[in-house]
Known about the structure:
The chain is an all-alpha fold. The chain has six helices and two strands, in the order αββααααα. The protein has a two-stranded antiparallel sheet. The longest helix has 52 residues.
Amino acid sequence: xxxxxxxxxxxxxxxxxxxxxxxxxxxxGSLQTCHAGYQLPACQWLEAHFPGQGRHAPLSSRYVASMxxxxxxxxxxxxxxxxxxxxxxxxxxxxxxxAAAVFSMLAASLSGVVASGAVAQEASNxxxxxxxxxxxxxxxxxxxxxxxxxxxxxxxxxxxxxxxxDELTELLSPHLHAELIASIx
Length: 185
């Protein structure tokens, strides 16, 4: 999920950087009054963030600043970098929409992972409870009940990895399967 967040952040950072470059250099030696009230050589966020350098600032610095803006927009925390012209404001609004979609997708994915784990844990707990109830009805000695319950929990906790092991090793030839089992044990 984090990787997906960073990939979207990278794409948006590239777009944010391109928007500044697409706006042009402006007139050398003169200042323009920009949409946001700034007096800059060119009305672009690069000029406001890198005074005197603008689009000629080192590429690594421009990328970090672009990524900082996009991740701030996507995380809804915001950024100290702001839009200077109308195009940058429109792209900033687009970022807000994309950020809401990505955030919703990540939250839904995380909720699904947590819910599936809770369902599996509940099923495991139900099986153990059924075993405990059965043993109480049959008046099984307490020490035996405790050992049986512990063993049942152990088996249920390790059942998914055992099932996966069995499923994967079925793909192997009998000789290779035996060699793999010998190596694991």
